[in-house]
Amino acid sequence: MHFDDRLATVLRLRAQGERAAKTQFRQLIDLLGERPQAGDPALKAAAYLRLIALAEAIPVKERAAIVGENGWRFRNPELVRWFGEAHPTIAAAALYRAHLTGAEWEELIPRLPIRARGFLRHRRDLPPEAVSVLDRLGVQDRALPLPDMVEMLVEESAIPDAPEPLILTPANDIEGHAAMTDEAVPAAEEHAKPTEEPPSRRRATTDGEGIRALVERIEAFKRNRGTTLPGEAPSLPMAGLEAVAPRKPVDAFIFSTDSEGRIDWAEGEIAPMVVGIELAVRAERNENGDGFAAAFINRRPVRGAHLALHGAEAIAGDWIVDAAPRFTRNEGRFFGFVGRFRRAVTPAEDQRHAGADRLRQLLHELRTPVNAMQGYAEVIQQQVFGPTPHEYRALAASIAGDSARILAGFDELDRLAKLETGALELEQGTSDFAAIAREQIKQLQSVLSPRVARFEADLGDWDALLPLAKNEAEMLAWRVLATLAGATGAGETIELDLRSEGNQVALRAQLPAMLASAEDVFSSEARSGGSTVSSGIFGAGFSLRLARAEARAAGGELRRDSGWLVLSLPLLTPVDALPSPVDEPGRAAG
């Protein structure tokens, strides 16, 4: 690399939105956290100004979580000092992740705010130079107090409790948590211990008694951990966990692996559920035929690899992984992958698709015996194998008709399942919905006349062109109009009108009394009875629901508006109506 322009590249981009702001915040502290190198001072100053601007868009709690993530190693004293002057939670997280030399600590600590120096007293891995500077500055209490100190604290227990010091215990850092447990236990036990106790029992007279009393207090705290009095809110760190709401399914998270392909870091609350999972041994494949394992072995980026995670409910399921290898700057040594997991489909979509697949499998299993019954009935009815009495032929014809109606119902169920899950798209084309509605209403008038019922239609004489194939438009219009005709009672008059509403055509139909009384017209079980027009074997509600799914697939909607049923469909725009240059012979060559 002849010159390093990564910082300029990051600053050239503008963070639009909270997620982009967090990403750029991570990028900047990653670049600025490296060892000080030669570069443009103005560019570095611009980077710190950008950090200040990003801090206004990211809440303090989330910034502290970002700075406290595993994997950060701040080796730039300038950035550590800048973080030391930030909010206490951010300063504490940054000072815990700072890895400086003894000389750098010796120069930096006196320049830090007094509050930030206090955070360093909990570090166990500071070099001797840093410890010496802290001792000279009077920053003490970096270990469990000695017994005589415990005696003095016990004797002065009547003094009101002071605020507990902030303890650097990152969520994913087990070593830091274990190193600080001995400090956190006595402080928390002070709040759990009853206050009404004779002073004579709290006062230790010898060193041995002080140590024994301290051990007893720690054991009592561990026994009583998480218990609260009736009506009292839990105040201990481990209390009240049973009331925590269950985790929600995760849609995406960022991760990194070590050189063996095992996840060693993940963002936020996902880390405890995925850290330790080995990705290099998984054989799932991506869109290009390569799996994550193959990409890991060849040290190549992976795009769209499908992986299945098992474990906690929040992460269980199918995922798509995009990741890239990482190499050390100086030696070029491979040390893992960094990337992002994202759900293959959302849990709701996955459940809906799974239900639709089960329904289609069930319909496939049911079609086989129904087809067999229909075939044998037609053989008998048509006397394929010889003469058959007319009575048996009539029964066979009835069975064949019933089988045909059942298969038609199966087809409607399958069509609805495919439409509602997006597995089926309506055929595109050009059709005149107004002409189709006029023709079908004319046909249905002859069916309604024997019942002294009719359609009072006002459709006009204009054209309503739809970007939909004619057979699809005819099926949709017939499903709506035939269902209304089948539910129309004797002597009823159903008003219909067709109007243009902007770039849509709306067919408004008055609901018959049988459907108007239903609370949900799309769940109504009303049937046509003895009418020659049938709404299907599942009733009018199912037919209207199927019509609604078809309308939505065409870009429209079928809804109930008080006592009316409104079918809205998008009209064919002038741009869509223009012929394609390929279709014009005279212009095809040009």
What do you see in this structure?
With 590 residues, the protein is of the alpha+beta class. It has 4 domains: 234 residues, no CATH class; 93 residues, 2-Layer Sandwich (Beta-Lactamase), CATH 3.30.450.20; 72 residues; 146 residues, Heat Shock Protein 90 (2-Layer Sandwich). It contains 23 helices and 12 strands. The protein is elongated and about 110 Å long. The C terminus is likely disordered.
What labels would you give this structure?
Beta-Lactamase, EC 2.7.13.3, kinase, 23 helices, phosphorelay sensor kinase activity, HisK_dim/P_sf, 12 strands, 590 residues, 4 domains, five-stranded antiparallel sheet, HisK_dim/P_dom, five-stranded mixed sheet, alpha+beta, disordered C terminus
Note the overall shape.
elongated
The main sheet comes to:
5 strands, antiparallel
Q: How many separate structural domains?
A: 4
Q: How many H/I helices?
A: 23
Structural class: alpha+beta
Question: Which stretches are low in confidence, meaning pLDDT under 50 for 5 or more residues running?
Answer: 142-207, 226-246, 285-289, 577-590
Give the termini separation: 49 Å
pLDDT average, as an integer? 76
Strand order of the largest sheet: 2-1-5-4-3
Rg, Å, rounded: 37 Å
Task: Report helical residue fraction.
Answer: 40-55%
What fraction of the residues are assigned to beta strands by DSSP? 5-15%
- Tell me the total number of β-strands: 12
Protein name: histidine kinase
Domain Signal transduction histidine kinase dimerisation/phosphoacceptor: 354-422
Region (Disordered): 186-207
Keywords: Kinase, Transferase
